[in-house]
Structures are given as C-alpha cells and as structure tokens.
Design a protein that fits this description.
homotetramer; 154 residues; alpha+beta; Thiol Ester Dehydrase, Chain A; 3 helices; 6 strands; disordered C terminus
C-alpha cells in the first residue's frame, strides 16, 4: 500500500533484468535486495577496491548506488514500454562510510508523466547498526515507447 | 597564472599521493593526468566493468571522477596540514557517455578559508572528439591541521 | 522529543529576532509559524506581488522560504554565540504552487559541528488541503563566536 | 554567434512579455537588461525590502533571479508554441551580496528537445566593481505546444 499506481505488473522483473545488465553494478559487488512499487534497495559489501584514502567506502560508490536506487525506484512506476534516464542528482555526505556494508534505499517522492523526483538514503552498517551516511535528491526522466536502450539525452 | 594563491608548494605530490591511496580509483583504472593550482584532470579508459545497461560508461563512474577531480582541485590550494572532505555535489547528465575515454576536469570556482566551491566538466572522447556529457557543481570542506585521515564529518 | 541536543535555551527568541530583522521576509508577508528544536515553519499568504506569469506563487518565493526555513532550523541547534550561513541548496519543483497559502517546513537531517544538512518541504494550501509543491536539500554553515552579523563567506 | 539554433525569431519579445507578466519580478524591482540566444541578464537595484538580517541582498532574491535568468535563457531557444518550467536548480552562495545592484546572467549549457541545462552566475556590484556572489546550475523542461500557461508539472 504505497499509494502509487502500478502501470506494469512486470516491474520487478524489468528492474532486476536491467540491473543485471549493468557491468558496473556487478563490478561493485552490488546486489538488488528489494524491489517494491516506488522503492528499491541496493547493498554493497565492503571490499578494498571500493575505498578512498582513509580505507572507507569511496564517495563514488555511494553516489553510484544512490543514483541507481533512485532510477530503479522511478522505473517501478513506469509503463511496460518506457525507459528511464537520470537527469541529475544532488548528494550530501553526512558521515564517513566506515563499515561492512553499504545500503542505498531509493524511493519516489513524486511520480510524474515526464519526470519523477526520488530520494535515496545511504546507510553504512557497522557492528550491526545502520548509520545514515548520505542522502540524494534526484530527477529522473521517463522516455515513453523507448526500449531500455541508448537514446539521445534531453 | 590562475590567480589562485598557493599555500603549499608540494600540492601536486600531495594530490598524487592521496589519489594513489584510493583503492576505488585504481579499480576504475583512473589516472591523474593533470594537477595544477586550482585544477585537476582525471581520465578513465573504457572497460566493460564500467558500464550501465546500454554498454556506455555508468553514471556512477562519471559521478566518482567528477567528485574526485573537484575534491583534488580544492586540495591543490590548501595548506600543508589541511585535509579535504566533499560536503556535497550536484551532477547534471547532458549526453550519453558513449566513447573510449572519460575525462573529468575539475576547477575551483571560489576558494575559501572553510569551504571551496568547484565545478567539474566530464567529457567522453569518441573518434578523437570530446563531447561534454556531464557537469558537476560541488562544495568541499577544508579540515585544518588534520592529516589526510578519517575525521568525524561536519 | 526530537533527539537533538539543544545548546542554547534561547533558540526560539534568537530565531524570531533574526527573522524579524530580514526586510525581505516582511516584504513577502512571511510569518514564522513554528520554531522547535531542529525544525521551523514559515507561511506566506497569496498576494499578486508574489506571482509568476500564470498567477501562481513564483518559484523565487518558494526558494526564499525553503532556504530560510532550513537555515533557521539549523540555527535552533547552534550555540548562543554562533551565526548561520547558507552554503548551498538544491530545490526540486514538484507541482504548481496554485493556492491561498504557501507553507515551508524545514528540518535538520544531520546536525554537525561545522555544517548542518537540512531538508525543507514546501506545500501549497488550496481549499483547505495541503499539496507538496517543492522540496529542498541544503547545507548550512555554523560560524562560531560570530554575532549574527555579516562575515566573509567560506 | 553562439552556436545555438534559433527556433523562434520572436524569442526576445516572448521573453520580455513573459517577464513583464511576473508580479514578483516587478515587486523585486527586477529589470531584464539583456536577451540573446541562449542567454539572459536580469538586474535588481538595492532596496531595504530585499535584505536579510545583515542588510545585504537576501539569498531569496539571488535565487529568484538566478532561476528566472536560467529559465528565460532556455526559453530563448524554444519553439514558438513551447512553454518552459523549472524542474530544479542548485545554488551555491560564494560571497555576501553587499552592494548597490545584483546582476544575474543565465546561459544555456546544453539545449535539449526535452530538457535544457543552464547556469546562472550572480554578481553584486559595489563601487563599480562586480563580484561573483553565487552560481546556479539548473534544469528546465520544455512543454511543447503549450501556451505560456499553467500546466500539470511532470
């Protein structure tokens, strides 16, 4: 019961299929841990290849899964022939991402016919406790009647 | 001749050293191709591990090198005992990143005692021509008398 | 019970005094309708001087009270000798601001020693119902031991 | 010679007409001082009704003319039957707006069929010298075949 209208019953399969085709998500070790109408969760276990100079998760990993969770949260509410594109996002870092797992939870704030606004909160899990380490506010465009394919942006 | 005041003659070595200690930049195959007062360039060659679902560079790679180029551009103007932290950034995607190399050029718009504002333009190189594919506007904090070390944020 | 630490018992008086000294808030007809630890509400009644070309509240009014509510939400948690400065904000418009009253509710997402992250939601009231028309994510700097006075930024 | 394609020869008249119908721009005392393909300039003379608590131009005035200059810069490149909507913007404050006149210069960074990305720089003029006090990066949507009229957003 999210209040969101579902326009495509296969939304979860479409999200999972698109996620699986992103080489970068695989390289990060990212897993799609939840797909629901208007929300998506992505988790990344710690790995030395994902660090910044202090040995914590790099901000680039945080940004990547914040953006991706927001985009797929948008995608859950789209029609079966639509594609999604990130227009822009803004990310605030709030605490060092020092922990064993990074979790990004994206949710739709405002669905639209042309653009959808989403927020993603990114948490780091340390000793079993979650800590908010970043938040993202972003805008995603719906490309109607476009396969999940490259398109001239804009 | 940039008009920026240099507060640490070793700025280029410090940037190169810090960059080299980021596991994530190595994992992306990123190279620091220019360090100058108030500006930094980073390049990433194409690789299937860096793709989104259409086979182009993933937005997460773009965000990672936009943020990193902005942060190190700030760092070039800091004192020898300062550390730098990304407070936040905003990234607009402008064209698909379809090409052989991604180039991020970060520059300081406004240096400050406490915070520095930077812009990074990200280009994709295809058939030898550069195309602007994203731009970032971000805010970086100076942590005085702090080794380039983990710190409680904020 | 907000979980926020109050560092200055007079926070509400300080916020009200600073708000009252802003000529622009008076010119907008803005009223401070709530001040609590970590949150502030501002209301603006409709007026033809506040419109864009379609006769709705102008985005500039929305931005002004979103930023101001975020800044004063930060200010409620500061020490008695601190001052506050907006570093930056990002504002997403989500629906036309067509109504009789505009309400901005700012709240602290993450208080900090140096910077505080806030979110403001802006609602328009029409026929007694509130509709979310914009959301702001912003960063505010604490200037310690500085009267609520002009300061070199950064 | 801007490199931008003009799709409507009457662009300057349309911008001037739309600007003139904004009650808020009139209330600010804002004047449209330049309209060219892909760029627009707005000026606001100082007035006590436009101040924050230190007697400088309020950030809300800066945001209003940054957004408006960006939106009209977009509008100069649109077709004769298109309308424009601000999707979102991000504004960084860089120096106190202490001066006699505020000048916002908006320019198109990337025109698009659906969305246009613009940047506005805001300067304050004091003793005849301009100082950069803020910069905005924003996204504007084109509404085709829509009078410059209210529209359901998104």
């Amino acid at each position: 019961m999210t209040g969101f209208e579902i326009r495509n019953e296969d939304y979860a399969d479409r999200v999972r299929g698109s996620f699986a085709s992103q080489g970068f998500m695989a390289a990060l070790g990212a897993r799609l841990t939840r797909v629901a109408p208007g929300s998506v969760e992505i988790q990344v276990p710690f790995n030395k290849e994902l660090t910044q100079q202090h040995g914590f998760f790099h901000g680039g990993v945080i940004g990547a899964i914040a953006d991706t969770a927001g985009g797929y949260a948008s995608y859950t509410l789209m029609g079966g022939s639509d594609s999604v594109l990130t227009i822009e996002y803004k990310l605030n870092f709030m605490a060092p991402a020092d922990g064993a797992t990074l979790i990004s939870r994206g949710r739709v704030l405002r669905p639209g016919r042309r653009v959808t606004v989403c927020q993603s909160d990114v948490f780091v899990v340390r000793d079993g406790a979650e800590k908010l380490c970043a938040t993202m506010l972003g805008t995603f465009m719906i490309l109607p009647n476009m396969a999940d394919e490259p398109a001239a942006q804009g």
